[in-house]
Amino acid sequence: MNVRAMAAMAGTAPSLCAGAEWAQSQTTTIDIAGQPVPVVKGGLYDRYRSNPPLSVIAAEAPDIDLSWFKQLKKERVDIGFESYSPNFYYKTSRVTVIYTADLDQLKALMPAKVLEQVQPLQVWPGRGLIALTAYTYRYCDNDSYNEIGLSIVTNKPGSSSFGPFTLLSQSMNGDFWGYVLKLPVNTELARVRGVVGYNLPKWLTDISYNETDKSVVVEIYDAKTKQLDVTMETRKLDDLSSKEVMVKNSFTNVDQKGQLTTGYVVARQLSHASSNSADDVKLTLTEGSLSAYIRALKLGKLLKYEYVPDFQSALYSPKPL
Prior knowledge:
The protein has 321 residues and is of the alpha+beta class. The chain has helices spanning 3-10, 14-23, 44-48, 54-60, 103-108, 112-115, 164-173, 188-198, 289-295; strands at residues 27-32, 35-40, 75-78, 82-85, 87-102, 127-140, 143-154, 175-182, 207-211, 215-221, 228-235, 245-254, 260-275, 281-285, 302-320. The strands form four sheets. A seven-stranded mixed beta barrel has the order 5-6-7-8-12-13-15. A four-stranded antiparallel β-sheet has the order 9-10-11-14. It has a two-stranded antiparallel ribbon with strand order 1-2.
């Protein structure tokens, strides 16, 4: 998806759209952990390295409510390079689909060290849960980008797993745990920061996040063949709630030194709806590499679809578990 299209969909201030158009051909290269990374010249990351003053955000995007971010304090951290935690995402949308999947296959994809601490939730015999999420970060500390998350739903480290009862408890508390399997992104800045700083399985590929009057259409391309790999088309739900809801998603993984780490993101959902109807989701797989990976999970029943057209989030840097 090109930057102009993303800005047009964002519905943000005119200054943002103009800046996004200009950014298509204006980039500069910076160093992150010894790697040359192209970034938007004059963009938020180029100017502030994950620590822009909120006054700058207010001036560039006056339509965004920054009240929540004013309550959060950033701290300088060393995550393989100097950064600030949490990382702020000011205007974001996502769609998430949760399916049952083969439990043995999910366990086989998790490192033994992680399995000692957390296990996939078993919702019924032989079946666990997989969450597939498409994000479009319209305006954030890392400028703008799209991302796809494929994660196993797990219990919390150190706690017992009681299958569907644990899932119900996580849902009621808005406190979810998972193990991230795949996390492709469409900017090199997001890739390098995620791999080096957050120990996440990111790679660079084309990802489009488009909206029609009635649906959200996400297309993920194979990084090697450049061919269309996975398409996820979801219906825009009508019964949107504007009640503010806070949700925490935590992940457990292994860092580059082989040590267990955990990180989390807190989301402030401003507009959201959900359903459990399979008619609201169409997932199309091809012969691409990500399609083959998903197909091997033996997806079953769709348990939940979440449509969240407007939310904000704060991503905290990982720490030893």
